[in-house]
Structures are given as structure tokens and as C-alpha cells.
Write a structure and sequence with these properties.
Elements (H helix, E strand, L loop, with lengths): L3 H8 L4 E5 L2 E5 L4 E5 L10 H17 L2 E5 L28 E6 H4 L8 E4 L3 H12 L7 H11 L2 H25 L11 E5 L7 H12 L4 E2 L5 E7 L2 E7 L6 E5 L4 H16 L1
Parallel strand pairs: 1-3, 3-4, 4-5
Antiparallel strand pairs: 1-2, 5-6, 7-11, 8-11, 9-10
Length: 274
């Protein structure tokens, strides 16, 4: 039987590292580092991120941390190709590897809501520990969903086709926002974009409400994705507040039907300029 503390250290990794261009934040427990990025590629934009990632691995090795890397968007990188943080450990002996990589069928195969994914462990000891934990928890996927995942694995060509279609929608539908000043650059991966609605003189929440009421277009205020936590200990958040930079941002998804996305963009732009 596993000690309770050993189990908790795997189930509740409270140490997080969010890597964004020119932005980083670290807080929590000095046992696990969580590396969360929507995309990571070998494009010119991401070379600094690769350097930061290497520095993270060096720090983790020096302090005995395990790194948990969320790579759900690996199939939706549009500039360069996806580079897994675990690939940087390729030359290390198995016992010295410390990256646990998490993947999701929700993004790659569109199985949203079925909560199916898989983990690549750095060595057998971690793999055995994860199997024991999943067996004793309620998060194990049900049998029909697992069969669905087996079928999905055979649809690699369809995944690639959807990625190409998503790239076309991104290039065609979002480019007008570059001219409006609402978007500094096209997203290099994923299928979301953060748009600045400061020109409307409304906050993101006000603009989203108005857009839904008057134009029948749904977007999400970005403030909900940017809450900053101040922690007292690894398990308790003392307070949470939105970052000032997010006040005039909204998040849009461009993963739907291309004609619907284009119509939504047109209505969005009319509201932005009115």
C-alpha cells in the first residue's frame, strides 16, 4: 500500500509554472513543477521558450522536482512542429529522467467531454505508481470510452485533415483582426485567440454581454482565464483576482464550421467599430 503522502504528491501537484512569451509565474510546492502550454514549436517565436524549458529541466534536476507537461495541443501547431519537453531528456539515462507528459483525446480527436487521455512516464517506477493510483480512483475512463479511443487511434489521417482545415480557418477568418488592432498576431497553435476590445470602450465582460444580446455571437471574457492566486501554503489559495491586462480581452474559438466562424467574425467586427 502506498503512503498517503506519496499518493497526494502525485494527485495534487501544487507547484505550477505557466510559460508564455515574455511571461512566467511560479508558486506552490517545491516537489512538482507543472509545465502548461497550449503549443510549443520550433518556430522563431518559440526559441526563447525552448531555452526557458531547458532552464526549467536544469532547475528541476538540481532540486529533485518532477515536471508534469500538459501537451494536449500537440496536434494543432501551425508554425514549425511540436517539440515535447520530454524530448530534451532523450540523451539522459532513464533513472535521471523526470518529465511526466500528459496527452488528451479531447483535443487531438475531438472527443471533448469523454475525459480520455494518456500519460507517458519517464521510467517504470512512475508508471507503476500511476497505474496503482488510477485503479483506486474514480477518474479511470469507462469501457465504452476506451473502445472509442482505440478506434480514434486509427484516424490519424482525419486528425491531420482537421489540422489543415483549422489552419485555413485561422488564416482566413482571423486576419481581419490584425488590421483592426484587436489581434497582434495569428495564434501559432491551438484554436483560441485573445482579442482586444479596448476600441469599443467596453470591458471584455461588457463587450461579451453586448455581443451575445445584439449580435447573437458568444465569446468569453478573458478575465476568467487570468486569475492570479496568492498562496499561503501549497494547498490553500488565500485570494484570487484577475490580472489588469485581461480587462479588455475576450477569448474566441475558431474551431467550428468555417462559414459560421466567418459570419461570427463579421458580426464581431461590426460591434467593435460601432
Amino acid at each position: 500500500m502506498l503512503p498517503i503522502w506519496s499518493t497526494a504528491r502525485v494527485l495534487f501537484p501544487a507547484f505550477r509554472l505557466f510559460c508564455r512569451p515574455g511571461f512566467g509565474r511560479v508558486f506552490g510546492n517545491p516537489t512538482y513543477a507543472r509545465y502548461s502550454c497550449e503549443y510549443s514549436s520550433e518556430s522563431k517565436w518559440s526559441r526563447s521558450r525552448r531555452k526557458n524549458t531547458s532552464s526549467l529541466l536544469e532547475l528541476a534536476a538540481a532540486r529533485g522536482w518532477t515536471v508534469i507537461s500538459d501537451e494536449a495541443y500537440e496536434d494543432f501547431v501551425y508554425e514549425g512542429r511540436h517539440v515535447s519537453i520530454a524530448a530534451l531528456e532523450r540523451g539522459l539515462p532513464e533513472r535521471d529522467r523526470r518529465v511526466v507528459t500528459v496527452f488528451s483525446f479531447s483535443k487531438s480527436h475531438g472527443m471533448t467531454g469523454l475525459r480520455l487521455g494518456y500519460v507517458v512516464a519517464p521510467h517504470d517506477r512512475t508508471a507503476r505508481l500511476l497505474r496503482i493510483i488510477q485503479e483506486a480512483s474514480l477518474v479511470a475512463p469507462c469501457t465504452p470510452v476506451q473502445y472509442g479511443g482505440i478506434v480514434a487511434l486509427a484516424l490519424t489521417d482525419e486528425v491531420r485533415r482537421r489540422r489543415s482545415a483549422m489552419l485555413g480557418v485561422r488564416n482566413h477568418a482571423l486576419t481581419p483582426f490584425l488590421c483592426d488592432g484587436a489581434l497582434p498576431r495569428l495564434p501559432p497553435g491551438g484554436w483560441y485567440a485573445l482579442l482586444n476590445v479596448l476600441g469599443s470602450r467596453l470591458t471584455g465582460e461588457q463587450f461579451a454581454t453586448m455581443l451575445l444580446r445584439e449580435r447573437r455571437v458568444a465569446v468569453t471574457p478573458a478575465a476568467g482565464f487570468s486569475y492570479h492566486q496568492r498562496t499561503i501554503n501549497p494547498w490553500t489559495a488565500a485570494s484570487a483576482q484577475e490580472t489588469p491586462e485581461s480587462r479588455h480581452l475576450v477569448r474566441v474559438a475558431f474551431c467550428g464550421d468555417s462559414q459560421l466562424v466567418e459570419e461570427g467574425v463579421a458580426r464581431f467586427r461590426r460591434s467593435l467599430s460601432s
